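Hi support team,

I'm opening this ticket because the web form for multi-chain structure prediction keeps timing out on my end. I have pasted the exact lines I submitted so you can reproduce it. The total is 548 residues across two entries, so I didn't expect it to be a heavy job. Is there a limit I'm missing, or should I split the entries? Thanks in advance, R.K.
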Amino acid sequence: MEATMLPEVTAGGVIIKAVLILAVISAIAGFGTYIERKVLAFMQRRLGPQHVGPYGLLQIIADGIKLFTKEDIIPQHANKLVFAVAPAITAATAFIALAAVPVFPDFTIPEWIPVLGGIFVPSIASDVNVGILFVLGMMAAGLYGPLLAGMAQANKWGILGSARTAIQFLSYEVVTGLSILAPIMMVGSLSFVDFNDGYNDNGLWLIVYQPVAFVLFLIAGYAETNRTPFDLLEHEAEIISGYVTEYSGMRWGMFFIGEYANMITIGVIASVVFLGGYNDFWIIPGWLMIIGKIAFMFFLMLWVRASWPHVRPDQLMWLCWKVLMPVAVINVVITGIVMMV
Amino acid sequence: MGLEQFKDRRVGTQNYKKLDLDHAPNCGWCQFKQVVSRTFKPELFVGLWVTFREMINALFRGQMHTTQYPLEKLPISPRYRAIHDMLRLLESGHYRCIGCGLCEKICISNCIAMETRYDENQRKEVSEYTINFGRCIFCGYCAEVCPELAIVHGQRYETASEQRASFSLFEDMLTPIDKLNLQKEYDGFGAVSPNADENIKKTPLAY
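Hello R.K., no limit was hit. The queue was backed up. Here is the completed structure from your submission:
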């Protein structure tokens, strides 16, 4: 098999990969706020952040300074320990989920670079053979961030926010799992690397075989990352800021780093599972393809946010249990029948 | 329509045209059909297209709406009543004010203070003229009453400063002598703003 051809994965390579992921993703997660503000502004024919650095590119630094220097307020009647820990749960689970996600193809650091030269960096920090389950599970564990944050802060808006967290995240876990089950059946593996390599030969992306699953996964992904058509957890018009009502400064910022990291994770999963991953495409190298796909998925989230209104909580539940879940189950059944025949 | 009919206030008895609202689905299958038709109608994608089109318009067709205020300013209507300007005679360059004192008299917030005297040619000369901008309500009576069109309202609306006195002296409001050729007459009541033509557009019904 191909696996024997590859160089050995060393601890050094994994550490480099982990550092790469952490550095790149947290930078992108911060930078994502700038991109989001800019794209939303353009779609409303505004300019967006403009004055910090060229084209406002350094806005993230200004925001960072603001977040770090803001007073960290803990409300009087809050459960202080839980209140303090909750943002870390969101950020940590978002980054742990990225450990099993392949970002960029394999590469070997060139020999001429001192110290690190010759180390083989794998495409994935840890290629666990249940990668997809691990990522979905970790993102599901991220539920505890908003849930505990809302319940710890002794604020009615927070309680409402965490109640919505519970119903929304738990319900849409079902749709995510079921929608991605059909591709899993087709590939016959839970490892992202197998997903990526599985359809390398005939060159067709999995979305061609599983368009329904792709749409379902996107919808559920938006619900799980708390993006706009489903951002009921902190819907300002109804519940102020939901679970982040009482947060300020860097704790508030950690929720958002977590949210943007989760957006990227959903983008990576969608790209790898449905859109052909980091395989070369025509003359475009794989690393550029995966960056392009993730960037498009990210842009799609912003685009949707600029275009579509919210749904009500009851509509959200209705959509999940009466439409998406049955469709997902039917999709799985049909996939199974087609594979048997 | 006769007046009698028009004055009929018995609401509910007239022949109103009812809105066509009785399309709510009333059976399970009808609801399902509604869901399916709404799901597969491309309306959501129309929404996506609208925002994308606006982005293209803004980025590539020069339809960005933002005015970057301190760097660029919108033209202001000539009727706007900002800090006063004292105008000069175009021929001689002398200030137009003849020291009649009407503006001081009419000022309803008593913020104009002026002193006059006869100069060596036995002409009236304005020796002191200040407007207390802490009191001025920018009503425009002074400009309206001035028989010589000497005091008018200018267009300096950025009036934040460390001292009110920065604006209030006669010399500050007077047109600088080297900019006499740039001095603008008051366009009169009812004048439209200089970019009025650009601001005219169709009612946006074509979304």
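A quick check on our side: The two ends of chain A are 28 Å apart (CA to CA). Let us know if the file doesn't open in your viewer.
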